[in-house]
Design goal:
Length: about 170
C-alpha cells in the first residue's frame, strides 16, 4: 500500500516500436503481396533495438527491424521475417526483400503510450505480484524518490512461477 498516487512522467513505450523482428514499410506498398505474388522492396537500413532509425521510409522501401526498435518515419506496418524471402537469400547484407504477405496498417507496431501514457495514474494494487506489468514496476521503481510508503503495509503474493526479480528492486528500496 502506498501513501499517495503515482503518476507516470513518461509514456511506455516512449516511441512507436516494432512488436516483432521483421521489415518496417508502407502498408500500401504490399497491398497485392502473397505467396504467389511476391512484392520486392529496397532495404535501406537495419534498425536494432535501442538504435534510432536514420532513414525515412519512402515508397518501395523497407527497413530491417528488430523487436523493440523504434519505427522509422514513413513506415506504417511491420512484416515478420517469416513472411518474407529473407531465409532464401544467401547474402547477409541484403539490399532487396521479397514480401509474401499483406499486413494491415499499424500491424505489429506498438504505439507510443500503448501500455502507460504520460500523466496516467499507475495502479500497482494487483491480486498477485505476477499480475504486475513490467512497465508499472519500472515506472514505480523510478518514482520511488518522493513517494511515501506506509510502513509495514506491503503485501506481495505470487504463483508457482516465482517472485519476479524486478519486483525485488522495489521492495529492497523501501
Amino acid at each position: 500500500v502506498i501513501a499517495e498516487d503515482i503518476y507516470s512522467k513518461v509514456s511506455v513505450p516512449p516511441l512507436d516500436n516494432s512488436a516483432m523482428d521483421g521489415f518496417a514499410l508502407k502498408d500500401e506498398d504490399i497491398i497485392s503481396a502473397s505467396e504467389t505474388n511476391v512484392v520486392y522492396l529496397n532495404v535501406v537500413e537495419t534498425i536494432e533495438a535501442g538504435r534510432i532509425p536514420n532513414k525515412k521510409i519512402l515508397k518501395g522501401e523497407a527497413s530491417r527491424i528488430m523487436t523493440g526498435a523504434p519505427i522509422p518515419e514513413g513506415a506504417t506496418t511491420v512484416v515478420p521475417f517469416e513472411d518474407t524471402d529473407e531465409n532464401q537469400q544467401k547474402e547477409s547484407n541484403i539490399t532487396k526483400i521479397g514480401i509474401k504477405l499483406k499486413t494491415e496498417k499499424f500491424e505489429n507496431i506498438r504505439t507510443a503510450g500503448e501500455d502507460i501514457k504520460s500523466g496516467e495514474k499507475i495502479n500497482i494494487i494487483k491480486d498477485s505480484a505476477t499480475d504486475l506489468k513490467h512497465e508499472e514496476v519500472v515506472l514505480t521503481t523510478k518514482s520511488l524518490l518522493g513517494i511515501n510508503f506506509l510502513k509495514n503495509h506491503i503485501k506481495c503474493s505470487c504463483g508457482d512461477e516465482g517472485f519476479p526479480y524486478f519486483l525485488f528492486l522495489i521492495l529492497s528500496a523501501l
